[in-house]
Amino acid sequence: MAKELGGKGKIGVVYHDADFFVTRQRTEAFEKTIREKYPNIKIVARGGISDQNDGEKVASGMLTKNPNLDGIFVVWDVPAEGALAAARTAGKQDLVITTCDLGTNVALEMAQKNGIVKGLGAQLPYDQGISEAILAGYSLLGRKTPAYVAVPALSVTRENVLKAWKLVYHTDAPKEIQQAAK
Fold it and tell me: From first to last of its 182 residues, what are the pLDDT tens digits of the chain?
């Protein structure tokens, strides 16, 4: 977000309005990073979703109340698709949308030359599973293991979306994403 905005601007945050550790952690980390590292980026709008299909409604409300928004962070990819639809409806082709999770639709938008989705953080579920399996094996062998292990997220942009897809899913990106990235 900060890179795409040149370190300044007004943004909105679409968060998951539920007591769910992962989505709460994502939102808190994003907001903390913006506050502490990018003082010229102001979070001027926040809106919660209780259902993944509420992204368009919440983002549309943000854009109506704040027509000069420069960007919107959405807590995961499916509601980000709704924010993308709201941006298109509002004619905001210059809006920067960022999110978490490498889903097909946000990857396709990001792969396009002037796509509104500019970046996301992708989980590495395959690698997480391998790590957990190794630790389970260690535990069965009586070795000490940590209570919790997490694989770091991967930063994905238009420039690396095809390589990131391969790394995340261990398969090539769908043809439509490959074609859009050309």
Answer: 999 999 999 999 999 999 899 899 999 999 999 999 999 999 999 999 999 999 999 999 999 999 999 999 999 999 999 999 999 999 999 999 999 999 999 999 999 999 999 999 999 999 999 999 999 999 999 999 998 888 888 999 999 999 999 999 999 999 999 999 99
Partners of residue 45 on adjacent β-strands: 12
CA separation for the pair 90, 85 (Å, rounded): 9
Residue 15: CB atoms within 10 A of its CB come to 21
Element holding 59 (H helix, E strand): helix 55-65
d(CA 103, CA 155): 14
Closest to 66 measured CA to CA, from 14, 15, 1, 110: 14
Collapsing DSSP states into helix, strand and coil, what is residue 116?
coil
* φ/ψ (deg, to 5) at 181: -80, -10
Q: Topology of domain 9-123+152-160, per CATH?
A: Rossmann fold (3.40.50)
Where are the domains positioned within the chain? 9-123+152-160
d(CA 86, CA 80) in angstroms, rounded, equals: 10
Q: What SS3 string covers 128-157?
A: HHHHHHHHHHHHHCCCCCCCCCCCCCEEEC
